[in-house]
């Protein structure tokens, strides 16, 4: 079932730091999201943005982290079929690992498997509702599907989570203009 996005390309993110530690359950994420919501300092925002991605991707389980690293390397090298196999294994082994689902959603998107990508975005958002990368990715999927209103809703939801998300505000303005809605 598709998630209904309610809201007032860094879609999914394609290049990730490769470090070890936690996932979407890390308690530091709340503080980092607070920085995104309250700071207008570009350096602080950029640091918080990067640290959120670092925390989402890392995992204390070395086997899981090794699979994540392998999948990311394959994805970045555009070896998408192999990356998909790795992320399939990762979500089977660790179904609570939100970033594994997000990475698989990215690979599905790049392969043109939009329905599968949407399904993985839905799981990502069930596990980490603040996942601005997955929300932005959903916006890109909706654009590919020719539904600018749904894309707008997804991008607006991403912007609620990360008010400084690069390029998103301009994309929202353009979509609103195209749809005949008021701009930000």
> What would you call the structural class?
mainly alpha
N-to-C SSE string, H for helix and E for strand: HHHHHHHHH
Rg: 16 Å
Total tally of structural domains: 1
Helix fraction, binned, reads: 55-70%
Can you count the helices?
A: 9
At CATH level 2, the architecture is Alpha Horseshoe
Q: Pick out the low-confidence regions.
A: 1-22
Summed over residues and divided by their number, the pLDDT gives a mean of: 88
Number of strands: 0
General shape: globular
The CATH class designation is Mainly Alpha
Approximate strand percentage:
under 5%
Please name the CATH topology. Serine Threonine Protein Phosphatase 5, Tetratricopeptide repeat
């Amino acid at each position: 079932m598709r998630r209904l996005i309610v809201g007032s390309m860094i879609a999914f993110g394609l290049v990730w730091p490769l470090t070890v530690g936690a996932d979407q359950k890390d308690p530091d994420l709340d503080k980092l999201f607070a920085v995104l919501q309250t700071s207008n300092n570009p350096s602080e925002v950029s640091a918080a943005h990067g640290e959120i991605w670092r925390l989402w991707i890392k995992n204390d389980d070395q086997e899981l982290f090794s699979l994540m690293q392998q999948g990311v390397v394959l994805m970045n090298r555009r070896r998408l079929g192999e990356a998909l196999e790795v992320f399939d294994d990762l979500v089977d082994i660790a179904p609570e690992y939100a970033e594994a689902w997000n990475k698989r959603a990215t690979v599905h998107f790049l392969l043109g498997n939009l329905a599968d990508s949407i399904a993985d975005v839905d799981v990502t958002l069930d596990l980490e509702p603040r996942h601005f990368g997955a929300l932005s990715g959903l916006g890109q999927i909706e654009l590919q599907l020719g539904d600018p209103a749904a894309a707008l809703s997804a991008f607006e939801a991403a912007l609620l989570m990360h008010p400084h998300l690069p390029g998103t505000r301009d994309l929202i303005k353009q979509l609103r203009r195209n749809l005949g809605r008021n701009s930000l």
